Amino acid sequence: MKIFNYPSPEAEKRVQDTIDRGLGFSREDQDNVQAFLDDVKKRGDEALIEYTNKFDSPAVTLDTFKVTEQEFEDALEQMTPQFLKALDRAVEQLTAFHSRQRENSWMDTPRNGVMVGQMVRPVAAAGIYAPGAKGGKTPLVSSVLMGGIPAKVAGVKSISLMTPPMADGKINPHLLAAARAVGIDSVFKAGSAWAIGALAYGTSQVPKVDVIVGPGNIYVALAKKIVSGTVGIDMIAGPSEILIIADETADPECIAADLLSQAEHDLLASAVLVTDSQALAQKVSAAIEPQLNALPRKDIAGQAINAFGAILVVPDIDTAIDLSNRLAPEHLEIMVESPFDYLDRIQNAGAVFLGPYTPEPMGDYIAGPNHVLPTAGTARFSSALSVSHFTKKTSLIHYSKAAFEKEADDVITLAQTEALDAHANSVSIRRK
């Protein structure tokens, strides 16, 4: 892994390349996704089955498109005690964390005769998307948990899960076990852009939802972007990112492992170490190659490391923090002697992992916070998926006659200033 001294022109170019990599939607991608969405909107379940048969499984029919109760029961019987233990821990800890995010409705009387407030309500229906890695053989259980749990905590009554089937027309049993543990009863066998379209527009079998969340490939991301005017979405997720700030006390083998944990995601993944120790930089660089060669996904991780990986040696940790805030990484690990001393300086990050025993995968699965995080620098203005994504806030206002009379003139003045005479008349007519 290449080492750069920062600041320098060479280091700045690598930093800027990382910032600029983003999500690239070609015109062809947009046209293809729009065609899928339009077709699903027009033909509904017929289009869903056609695309599912073509791209995922010829075994799925209209009658087998929705997962049955028997399929849930069969899936649960296949689970090992070890998996169920891990699943229960994850569900318990994620639910506890997201429960702290619930907001209550409130009312206040700030002036005599005036009541204002805010009513917090869950959306009626939500859709969760879980990708079908390796043809559904690698179940992304965590996607079900991270999407379903905040929706359930928010109080959403109807939650639908869309996930592509395996070649035999079945859903990986681990995904069904996770869906049942979260409280999701409606699971449908469809993936990619057409699944997003079904959730956004509704079909005979798939309920139309108000919010769609969950990760996916470029077609899923683009479909969510297109339908975002019709439904709410969590975010447009870009490639995975990790930035590690470390000093001489950090373990180079652990840092190398953490960098590779994100590099293995995809070719555009970014893995960056920023350190004030030249010695540590050399040790981490040396540790990367043997760990990389042992990975099943070494080709993907290796290309990501070469294109968007870097070890940046900075003058001091303060410079490292400034650089981190500029990059606004999805995952930020602080592996220094006293990590909490620097926490108040962190302005932009999706999630912060503090100390040597807090690798990023702890947050991916069981720590509690959501792992659906802003990428591509959007942590400057956006946040992790949370309960608030599944709620809406309605303002409440009440005036007594006396309070209305007291403030009416000011409203009329402001309305007339904006040349909105009907607004002014709506107030003045009540004074006659």
From TrEMBL:
One of its GO terms (molecular function) is NAD binding. Keywords: Amino-acid biosynthesis, Histidine biosynthesis, Metal-binding, NAD, Oxidoreductase, Zinc. Coiled coil: none annotated. The active site is at 330 (proton acceptor), 331 (proton acceptor). Transmembrane segments: none annotated. Zn(2+) binds at residues 262, 265, 364, 423. Its cofactor is Zn(2+). The keyword Disulfide bond does not apply. Its EC number is 1.1.1.23. It comes from the Bacteria. This is Histidinol dehydrogenase.
